[in-house]
Recover the amino acids of this structure.
């Protein structure tokens, strides 16, 4: 079966939405971080597919950059998680509602 | 797959002008790195030393940027980044905010015994990202710069280890920020797909012809705009802001309120005007865009002001007021999307005035805050005027500026903004804006009433002499500049005008700017 | 340099004011006496006088047609097509007024040092007095109507402050309020007149008005309207019928204030205005008729009331109103120059009269009823001599100043094309009354047997020296306007226009006939009245026989009561109703309601922020979908 760029696009869109849904649904904060990463990678996939479609290297280069940035982001995020939950001793985001209204 | 593409020379070779254009970024980055390295040393003076390095770096950066205000634009990396008067003005703004926040936070960190070099270093890295974001003329540059701007800020929000509120604020900000960035990136991908180019100029061809661009392009544009709206905290993407502002340490909040918002708005202005989305050729799209901005402006203004009325915690009140000010800012951008872009210079000036006022307000709050920024409720500032008359006076000036009372920078900015909007015939918008401003006066003046007309309650804010000098200097500079700009606004407004004029450059495929 | 004329007293006001505010109002501080504050104030006004004199000399040296010195202080209003700069202008008319204001002002300041020596807050008094001088000078030096208006309002303010100076006495405070409010009614006319002038002539600068009105407009409705409206302002400021009621009450203030403000300067501001716009006024004979008529009627009416008064200051007040009527009569018959001449001489002798009265009141320990005085000639010789000079001057006895100026007005009233015999007759009758009641005053106070119950003594030198200076001026000041050689007329010609030629049929000799007759009449009336009051008992009997008329006169024709019932009480009632029903009931509750709704909405809206991270993310999702959806829906 021949894979066309639009199929990859559709997949990317699907993964993006799954990731978003994950952020909405999952209670564990690490899982939320993973879903955000999913969304970023969906965008990556989209870039690469378009690069394929337009026969342009730029899109592929973008993917590499984005991966690096996403990694940095993940590092920061995990550091924050560790810092906070050392005190709370739980990774449940449902419980952290000190700040509201 | 295509064949290997030869590396284009312009991406690798820099002539002198381009190197000078990059100099501010380099200087700022180097200073930030140096400050971070100072953190490795084992010395009592790490904190002050890092602060000094950061200020020096900022000063050098401002010097370079100021030299660019008058010159013609410099294109970098094949039109993927540009240093023009707009970038220069924005960069000066960011560095100014950074220095003032650093100065006002100096004592705050020292008093709590957590005076670390990393804070200053991260503030400066964030500035780096802000400047890069405004210089960007390319989607990828934009994304990376925005991340560079945001990641240090997430870390700064969480900087007080063990503080639950801070940690919660940081988590919320980080997760939602990640979602926002992902939306921006995905949208960028769609725009790339629809146009085949990553640069703003390349995207422009999508919106230049009178035929509506395809669904992909519209989805992309919509997602990118959502990403910007998120960072600028427009309704309904604003929900991270109150928690993030309340949980972060007060000086950091000031920096966020001034710098991050300004960066988001300025980068959005650059994006929207360079990529042709601001004035798209198809009238239907222009109309839709105008409605989007209109709705965002009105909803944000009303929501921010109404909820601020109900707040007792000063930090949270200022957070909602920040949302309200975003509403005013977007109001100024509405004409830019349909008529002759008049509102944009008013918005650019507004960011300056608002930034100074809000950093000042948070500086005053950080002076009187208790442990973990407690004791910042309204009744905690009762009678502040008798206990700390200087702080009370400074806070009064800043709050009046935020409210838009005449003789302050905030009034000049609001006046200019509403005037531009009326000239562009969006009178209904101005009426809403003025009504909302009127509502806002209540919660701003309430602070003044409590400070001057109530009896003091509880213990006095800490009077130890540690590090009071720099915050005092920063506060004095801020009060003076807020009042001066309020009385004689013509010079800063001229600068803003020059900056925006550089945006509307001639040549290269413009569509009736 | 022109600015110095105004800046000097303004600086005096600020210095005295700040001194008072910071030092004297705090408890336990050593109070500054009237000498130090008074000297500061006097120095300020004297400096102003020197500057005015210098300006006058400069003008003298200039050729007659080009006597103007201008100074632009700053660009004031530039809004759209309307541009107005803050310009001061010294020309023959304004320089005369400046000299009078600063000269007589200086003398009154010196007098006040003695008069207010026992007052508890002299700093405040002198500060206000200086501010008044600054405002009055601004009024006459203003080159355009708005600048003049600032001074106009300023003198109204100072009048209020000074009349109600002893504000702890509620009656005195009420007098100040009355002055201000009645003045305000006239000011409305001034402002409306300004609007009409701007609309039809296009400029508010006086020189432009004078030239523009002759060429462009002609004598149409706008000129009449503007003239009458401006005159309405004068009716308020210069106490003519029907807005004169504040001036008698204004006697509640310190006597030097009455001398300066309500005799010599502020009330003459209206005459100044009429003189300034006389080129415009003369285009409308209807307006001129009204002005002359009101002036003549006021002169008669006030003169009559003066007969029935027993308070020395009230008599002088009504006399002032009457003399002001004279000045407007002059303006109304096209002889504004004569009006100005009378302003000058009147300022000399009226100020002298008031200061003398102040000296008497001071000596009598506060008593003001002339029926309780008498024979003060022996106890207060210096006051007596100077008061006598002023009395003779106002009665029109030659060769004192009052004779020449009054005669000039009467001659012009008779001979000018705008005038007529009836105006002359009215003026003559008013002159007769003036001579009569002033002689009554003089003889009851200074002559005859003493009825005073307190021991009286002469006033100190600070009070008597100014009296002598003014006395000398009252005697000799008329020579600037001798008929046939009228120096003052020529001096004012460039500003006021050519003096009107006489009506046909009136020869030159008529002037000398009238001159001689008015001198004779004046002398006769004075002599008769002196004789009449030699026996006070006879006077009392006479009053008893005509007591109905006498009561009406004493009660000022019940005008105040009439105004009260017709105007004041209904207005107050309407205000009260509007306050309770409309302001409190409707507007305030609407505003409060809006406020409460906003706060309630805010309390509701804040619940949106649940604190749940996922709720926030959901909101973002909705926002993004809505945004994209809206952009895309047009495609379909």
């Amino acid at each position: 079966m021949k894979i066309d760029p639009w199929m990859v696009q559709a997949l990317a869109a699907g993964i993006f939405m799954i990731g978003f849904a994950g952020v909405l649904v999952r209670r564990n904060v690490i899982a939320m971080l993973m879903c955000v990463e999913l969304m970023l990678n969906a965008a990556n996939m989209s870039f690469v597919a378009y690069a394929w479609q337009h026969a342009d290297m730029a899109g592929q280069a973008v993917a590499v950059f984005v991966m690096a940035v996403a990694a940095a982001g993940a590092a920061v995020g995990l550091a924050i998680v560790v810092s906070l939950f050392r005190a709370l001793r739980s990774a449940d985001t449902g419980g952290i509602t000190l700040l509201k209204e | 797959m295509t064949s290997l593409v030869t590396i284009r020379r312009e991406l690798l070779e820099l002539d002198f002008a381009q190197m000078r254009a990059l100099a501010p970024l380099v200087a700022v980055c180097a200073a930030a790195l140096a400050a971070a390295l100072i953190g490795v040393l084992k010395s009592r003076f790490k904190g002050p030393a890092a602060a000094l390095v950061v200020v020096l770096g900022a000063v050098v950066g401002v010097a370079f940027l100021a030299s660019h205000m008058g010159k013609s634009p410099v294109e970098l990396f094949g039109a993927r980044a540009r240093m023009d008067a707009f970038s220069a003005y924005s960069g000066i703004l960011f560095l100014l905010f950074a220095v003032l926040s650093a100065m006002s936070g100096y004592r705050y960190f020292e008093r709590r015994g957590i005076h670390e070099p990393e804070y200053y270093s991260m503030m400066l890295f964030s500035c780096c990202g802000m400047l890069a974001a405004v210089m960007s003329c390319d989607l990828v540059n934009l994304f990376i710069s925005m991340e560079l701007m945001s990641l240090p800020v997430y870390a700064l929000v969480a900087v007080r280890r063990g503080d639950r509120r801070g940690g919660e604020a940081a988590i919320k900000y980080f997760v939602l920020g990640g979602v926002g960035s992902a939306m921006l990136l995905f949208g960028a991908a769609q725009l790339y797909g629809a146009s085949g180019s990553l640069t703003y100029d390349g995207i422009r061809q999508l919106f230049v012809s009178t035929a509506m661009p395809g669904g992909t392009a519209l989805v992309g544009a919509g997602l990118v705009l959502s990403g910007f709206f998120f960072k600028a905290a427009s309704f309904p993407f604003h929900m991270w802001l109150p928690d993030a502002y309340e949980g972060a340490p007060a000086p950091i909040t000031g920096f966020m309120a001034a710098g991050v918002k300004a960066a988001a708005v300025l980068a959005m202005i650059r994006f929207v005007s360079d990529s042709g989305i601001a004035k798209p050729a198809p009238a239907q799209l222009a109309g839709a865009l105008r409605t989007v901005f209109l709705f965002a402006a009105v909803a944000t203004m009303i929501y921010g002001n109404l909820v601020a009325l109900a707040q007792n915690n000063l930090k949270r009140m200022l957070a909602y007021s920040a949302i309200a000010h975003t509403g005013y800012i977007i109001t100024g951008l509405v004409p830019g999307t349909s008529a002759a872009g008049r509102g944009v210079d008013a918005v650019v000036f507004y960011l300056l005035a608002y930034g100074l006022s809000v950093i000042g307000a948070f500086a005053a709050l950080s002076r009187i805050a208790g442990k973990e920024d407690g004791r910042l409720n309204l009744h905690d500032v009762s009678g502040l005027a008798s206990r700390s008359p200087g702080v009370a006076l400074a806070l009064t000036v800043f709050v009046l500026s935020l409210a838009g009372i005449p003789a302050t920078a905030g009034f000049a900015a609001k006046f200019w903004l509403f005037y531009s909007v009326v000239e562009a015939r969006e009178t209904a918008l101005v009426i809403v804006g003025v009504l909302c401003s009127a509502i806002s006066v209540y919660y701003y003046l309430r602070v003044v009433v409590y400070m001057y007309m109530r009896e003091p309650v509880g213990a006095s804010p800490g009077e130890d002499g540690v590090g009071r000098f720099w915050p005092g200097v920063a506060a004095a500079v801020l009060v003076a500049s807020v009042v001066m700009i309020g009385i004689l606004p013509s010079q800063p407004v001229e600068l803003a005008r020059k900056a925006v004029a550089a945006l509307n450059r001639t040549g290269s495929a413009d569509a009736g700017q | 340099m022109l600015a110095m004329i105004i800046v000097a007293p303004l600086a005096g006001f600020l210095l005295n004011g700040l001194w008072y505010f910071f030092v004297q109002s705090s408890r336990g501080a050593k109070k500054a006496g009237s000498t130090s504050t008074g000297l500061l104030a006097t120095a300020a006004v004297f400096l102003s006088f020197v500057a005015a004199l210098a300006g006058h000399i400069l003008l003298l040296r200039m050729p007659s047609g080009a006597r103007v010195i201008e100074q632009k202080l700053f660009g004031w209003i530039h809004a759209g097509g309307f541009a107005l700069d803050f310009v001061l202008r010294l020309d023959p008319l304004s320089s005369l007024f400046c000299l009078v204001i600063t000269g007589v002002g200086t003398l009154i300041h010196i007098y006040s040092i003695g008069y207010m020596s026992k007052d508890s807050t002299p700093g405040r008094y002198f500060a206000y007095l200086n501010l008044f001088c600054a405002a009055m000078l601004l009024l006459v030096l203003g080159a355009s109507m708005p600048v003049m208006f600032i001074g106009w309002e300023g003198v109204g303010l100072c009048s209020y402050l000074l009349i109600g100076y002893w504000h702890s006495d509620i009656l005195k405070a009420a007098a100040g309020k009355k002055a201000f409010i009645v003045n305000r009614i006239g000011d409305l006319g001034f402002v409306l007149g300004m609007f009409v002038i701007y609309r039809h002539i296009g400029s508010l600068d006086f020189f432009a008005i004078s030239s523009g009105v002759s060429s462009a407009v002609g004598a149409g409705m706008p000129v009449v309207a503007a003239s009458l409206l401006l005159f309405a302002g004068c009716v308020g400021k210069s106490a003519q019928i029907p807005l004169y009621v504040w001036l008698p009450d204004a006697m509640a203030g310190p006597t030097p204030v009455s001398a300066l403000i309500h005799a010599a300067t502020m009330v003459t501001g209206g005459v100044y205005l009429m003189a300034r716009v006389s080129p415009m006024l003369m285009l409308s004979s209807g307006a001129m008729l009204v002005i002359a008529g009101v002036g003549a009627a006021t002169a008669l009416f006030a003169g009559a009331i003066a007969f029935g008064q027993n308070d020395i200051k009230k008599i002088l007040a009504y006399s002032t109103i009457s003399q002001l009527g004279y000045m407007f009569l002059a303006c109304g018959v096209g002889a504004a120059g004569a009006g100005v001449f009378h302003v000058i001489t009147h300022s000399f002798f009226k100020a002298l009269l008031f200061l003398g009265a102040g000296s008497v009141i001071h000596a009598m320990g506060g008593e003001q009823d002339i029926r309780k005085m008498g024979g003060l000639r022996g106890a207060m010789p210096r006051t007596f001599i100077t008061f006598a000079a002023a009395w003779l001057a106002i009665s029109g006895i030659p060769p004192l100043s009052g004779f020449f100026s009054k005669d000039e007005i009467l001659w012009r009233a008779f001979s000018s094309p705008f005038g007529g015999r009836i105006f002359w007759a009215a003026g003559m009758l008013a002159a007769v009354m003036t001579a009569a009641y002033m002689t009554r005053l003089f003889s009851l106070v200074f002559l005859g047997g003493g009825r005073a119950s307190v021991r009286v003594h002469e006033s100190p030198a600070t009070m008597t020296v100014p009296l002598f200076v003014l006395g000398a001026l009252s005697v000799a000041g008329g020579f600037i306007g001798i008929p046939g050689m009228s120096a003052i007329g020529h001096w004012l010609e460039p500003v006021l226009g050519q003096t009107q030629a006489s009506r046909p049929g009136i020869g030159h000799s008529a002037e000398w006939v009238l001159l001689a007759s008015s001198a004779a009449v004046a002398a006769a009336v004075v002599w008769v009245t002196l004789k009449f009051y030699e026996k006070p008992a006879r006077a009392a009997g006479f009053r008893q026989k005509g007591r109905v008329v006498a009561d009406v006169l004493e009660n000022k024709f019940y005008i105040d009561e009439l105004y009260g019932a017709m105007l004041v009480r209904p207005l107050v009632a309407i205000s009260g109703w509007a306050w309770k029903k409309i302001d409190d009931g409707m507007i305030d509750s609407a505003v409060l309601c809006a406020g409460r709704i906003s706060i309630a909405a805010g309390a509701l809206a804040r619940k949106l922020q649940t604190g749940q991270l996922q709720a926030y993310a959901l909101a973002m999702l909705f926002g993004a979908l809505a945004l994209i959806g809206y952009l895309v829906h047009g495609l379909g």
Summary: The longest helix of chain A spans residues 57-88.
